[in-house]
UniProtKB/TrEMBL annotation:
This is Uncharacterized protein. The chain crosses the membrane at residues 137-155, 176-196, 235-254. Keywords: Membrane, Transmembrane, Transmembrane helix. The keyword Transmembrane helix applies. It comes from the Bacteria.
């Protein structure tokens, strides 16, 4: 079901993956200082040679999007200067409340973005990274799997009335719970690698990730990120954070023990999307 959803997402995109992948491969072979000229030459040939999409209108829109991405990466230093200027204006306003969140945030912003000065932002394919990490439906699937795993780890014993017997043994409390937590961790790790790793594989095969060593700000939706990461580091960190969140939810659910489980499932669902929302807000600042 998750794979079908990912392929439906690809199907609903404006441009075919083959077209996007091909145009960025050709662009990456051009020196960066000549990329704008290369795009302009391609635009002039669209009327007679729509070589990437086979459609005149789509070809124009594809190169319009490519031009927009190129201008965005070329203006990254100006973006950092603009951030610094806005922060200075905010802190220098006479009527600024130095106790307000906006004022304190404006004071910290220049220091946060100063460390990004000098990074090299390049124009490369972003669609593969976006497809791999935009995974709301995958999160929902993981939530259902966690609930199912916890059910079998806890309620199967209760169903056959083994839980009371295990609790009465010498190592029937902490050791049993610890074993369940580690079992849940193994299940979560396997599912994270299968589900999110599957998204990575599809994104890589369909679009590609581009140069994994380039800065994460080269990805269009992460252009404003305040973190000095490469695309490879971002993808690895994304998987690690997904595992930590899912593992913590599963571990807490196991420790919830039976009576509180039904009430706890709602808390688990909230926690998944709470952490997911925090992560997205941090990575897309």
């Amino acid at each position: 079901m998750n794979i079908w959803t990912v392929f439906q997402t690809i199907k609903n995109q404006q441009f075919r993956p083959e077209s996007v992948k091909a145009v960025y491969q050709d662009l990456s072979a051009v020196p960066q200082e000549e990329q704008a000229k290369w795009i302009q030459n391609k635009k002039e040939k669209i009327g007679t040679e729509p070589s990437y999409t086979g459609n005149l209108i789509l070809e124009k829109e594809l190169f319009a999007e490519l031009t927009k991405n190129l201008q965005q990466t070329q203006n990254y230093d100006l973006y950092l200067e603009e951030i610094e200027q806005k922060a200075e204006q905010m802190t220098s306003v006479i009527f600024s409340d130095d106790r307000s969140y906006a004022y304190r945030s404006a004071q910290k912003t220049p220091a946060v973005f100063k460390k990004l000065q000098g990074i090299h932002v390049t124009t490369d394919v972003s669609e593969g990274v976006i497809l791999a990490t935009r995974s709301e439906f995958t999160d929902f699937c993981m939530f259902l799997i966690i609930i199912a795993a916890v059910y079998f780890l806890i309620f199967e014993e209760r169903k056959f009335k083994l839980y009371a017997l295990l609790k009465s043994t010498y190592r029937g409390r902490q050791s049993v719970i610890r074993a369940k937590v580690f079992s849940g961790a193994g299940i979560v790790l396997f599912c994270v690698l299968v589900f999110y790793g599957g998204n990575y594989l599809i994104g890589c095969c369909k679009y590609g990730f581009g140069d994994p060593a380039r800065s994460v700000q080269s990805v269009t939706i992460l252009y404003e990120s305040p973190f000095r990461l490469s695309v490879l580091e971002y993808l690895v960190l994304y998987l690690v954070l997904k595992f930590i969140v899912c593992y913590s939810v599963a571990g807490n659910a196991v420790r919830a023990e039976g009576e509180r489980f039904c009430r706890f499932t709602g808390c688990c669902f909230f926690k998944i999307y709470k952490y997911h929302g925090i992560y997205k807000s941090i990575s897309c600042l």
